[in-house]
Specification:
Radius of gyration: 27 Å
Helix content: 55-70%
Number of helices: 14
Largest sheet: 2 strands, antiparallel
Strand order of the largest sheet: 1-2
Shape: globular
Oligomer: single chain
Length: about 375
């Protein structure tokens, strides 16, 4: 999403028109021409009209847009709907087309806000857009540009062809291994590109998680395909339908394996728990278990609509006269179905749990419960 260009004190795109809802003569409304030679009164009248329009549009805009807070989400995170809208912003593929100059403009605008040197006329809407652009492209810890295919906003566009490949009918052993490997490789790159880089992490941990995910995904997918092929009680049509559902258990189990292998240190060392003021109370292994459970559940729910709905929808569409008479349309139709399922499933799945989850202090370790008077503490569950 591109930042609007600003000229003088008026953001671009705002029409300098009259205020039909204002009383005659107020806010620069219709007045007799005059005010000196050369139309000086007319120029003053036009400036008043423009100022009036800017104020009215600014008030209308602020009515639906919250005040800007640097580094904070625009939408409320305590409700599912608020989290859903927040993650829709994060995965917005339009940010993939932001140019380098627009990115620099967004970063500079946020720097100006941080140091209190904003140009006149900058609105909350522009500031939220600037933050959205920066968060979509720049890693928050390293301040480096994330490679486009591995951004969260590129996860759906670049991941959909892989999903289509996973769901192709009549898979061979080689194609099954290839698509499962490619899917887990893409997931590993996305996870690494968007990792928490505040603390140094050995590359061996990521390699371990990647290899575990690939091995588990390929093993389960190949094993299930072999069992289906040996099941003589199934008709060829039933066997083909069941094969289309094989990618889901393979990908879901690989996702769980990836989470456990890459974050197992949290189970041993614990994760930070904070009070309502953001103060660190301690490090809790119990909170780490909750965080990993919530993350693993999200990783199971995520591929469900993507890998289950398209086979069901395609099995119904393939019986229609359109696809029977035009079998070459099957792949484009399946691609569109996969894209729609992916676009819906991703924000729904990652919105299930808040990024900062709450847990009752009484359920944590005794030493943590004794260290605070807060009834609940919060922890970062991760994505």
């Amino acid at each position: 999403m591109l930042l609007p260009r600003r000229e003088a004190a008026f953001p671009s795109g705002r029409r300098r028109t009259t205020c039909p809802s204002m009383p005659r003569g107020s806010c620069g409304g219709p007045r007799p021409m005059g005010g000196g030679a050369g139309g000086g009164g007319g120029a003053r009248r036009r400036r008043r009209l423009a100022g009036c329009q800017w104020r009215r549009e600014g008030m209308a805009e602020s009515a639906g847009i919250p005040p800007f807070q640097l580094g904070r989400p625009r939408f409320e995170q305590t409700s599912f709907y608020g989290r859903f809208r927040h993650f829709l912003d994060i995965i917005d593929p339009r940010t993939l087309f932001v140019t380098e100059s627009r990115l620099k403009e967004a970063v500079q605008l946020l720097e100006d806000y941080k140091h209190g040197t904003l140009p006149p006329g900058v609105t909350n809407k522009e500031l939220w857009k600037a933050q959205k652009i920066k968060q979509a492209i720049i890693h928050p810890d390293t301040n480096e540009t994330i490679f486009m295919p591995f951004r969260m906003s590129g996860y759906i566009p670049f991941g959909t062809p892989i999903v289509v490949g996973l769901l192709l009918p009549n898979q061979t052993l080689a194609s099954t291994v290839f698509w499962q490997w490619l899917n887990q490789s893409h997931n590993a790159c996305v996870n690494y590109a968007n990792r928490n880089a505040t603390k140094p992490s050995p590359a061996s941990k990521f390699i371990q998680g990647y290899l575990g995910a690939v091995i588990s995904a390929v093993s389960i997918a190949v094993g299930l395909n072999v069992l289906i092929q040996k099941a003589n009680q199934f008709t060829p049509a039933t066997r083909l339908l069941i094969q289309r559902f094989v990618p889901f258990p393979a990908v879901a189990s690989a996702n769980i394996c990836n989470v456990v292998l890459m974050r197992h240190m949290e189970l041993e060392e614990g994760i930070d728990v904070l009070d309502s003021d953001g103060n660190r109370v301690g490090s809790s292994r119990i909170a780490a278990k909750h965080a990993l459970l919530e993350t693993a559940l999200t990783r199971v729910v995520l591929p469900m609509p993507i890998l289950v709905l398209p086979p069901i929808i395609m099995s119904l569409l393939e019986k229609t006269a359109l696809l029977r008479s035009r079998p070459r349309m099957a792949l484009p139709v399946q691609s569109f179905v996969c894209l729609a399922a992916f676009g819906l499933a991703l924000p729904l799945a990652i919105s299930l749990f808040p990024q900062m989850s709450e847990i009752e202090t009484s359920r944590l370790e005794p030493e943590i419960a004794r260290a605070t008077t807060s009834e609940t503490l919060v922890y970062n569950k991760g994505l």
